Amino acid sequence: AAPPAVAGGAAAETTAAPPAVAGGVAAETTAAPPAVAQSVDDKPEAIEEAGPWNGTIVLGATARTGNTDNTGTTAEVTIAYLGGSWTHRGRASVDYLRNRAQTQEQAFEGEYEAQYDLDHRHFSYGLARYEYDRFSGFDYEFTAAAGLGRHLVREPGHEWTVTLGPSFRQARPSDEQNVDRALGARFTNLLSWELSDNAGLENRTEALADSERVRVNNDVILKLRIIDQLSGQISFGFQYRSDTPEEAEHTDTTTRATVVYDF
User: Phi and psi for 166 in degrees, rounded to 5?
Assistant: First the structure.
């Protein structure tokens, strides 16, 4: 009677062991990918791999219509620093333009933004921007804003981010000596898609509104990687201002074809 009992026990132990091992392997295999996927968006690990500094250099051609009909060259530099929950970003751009009457002009824009991550989805920000562009109908324009933002979608290859908050504007129209100042609100919307491993599409929208005027900027950007950190970029943007001087147009468009170096 003993051998059958031993054989039966061995058989039971042998058949029970494989399911337990198989079940453990299956559970471990399915649990691992979510943990790895979540670490991709973890900022400290991204900083450790790529470093806290990054940026872009943009050079190319530009064409504008609206308050002026001219072509020229454009250059832009963006530098960002990521440290813990903070992101600091500075941007400067200049357009050197010439119209059909051979009039040469420059348009300059400088911007600084600080962003603090409250959690994976939410952040606060502060922004300051200075613009000089005679063709816009203003000698200069200064904008300051702060507020909260949310990543509505934050997945590999797809991002949707919105911000909202109060703003302050100071500007001097070209035909006046007085300076306009107004408090208002600022809203932004960013949509980005990774079309393929070498192509990406972005749509950036900014709306500023106060008691005296409404301003809307929208840019559509297509970026195609050439080799490694070098890419080609085509963009089309329009800008609407409701409070332009009488002789100025309300809408301007800008088309750019540029080369981008990421570092």
Answer: -75, 160
Q: What is the pTM of this model?
A: 0.76
Please write the tens of the pLDDT for every residue from 148-166. Answer: 999 999 999 999 999 999 9
Q: pLDDT band at residue 98, thresholds of 50, 70 and 90?
A: confident
Residue 95, H or E segment: strand 86-99
Distance set, CA 94 to CA 13, 61, 75, 175, 254 (Å): 77, 11, 6, 23, 13
Residues in contact with 231: Cβ distance below 8 Å, sequence separation at least 6, in sequence order: 223, 224, 225, 259, 260, 261, 262
- Residue 169: partners with Cβ closer than 8 Å, 6 or more residues away: 141, 142, 143, 180, 181, 182, 183, 184, 208, 210
CB 241 within 8 A of CB 250: yes
DSSP line for 131-168: EEEGGGTEEEEEEEEEEEEEEEEEETTEEEEEEEEEEE
Report the pLDDT value the prediction gives residue 136, as an integer from 0 to 100. 67
Question: Does position 21 have pLDDT exceeding 50, yes or no?
Answer: no
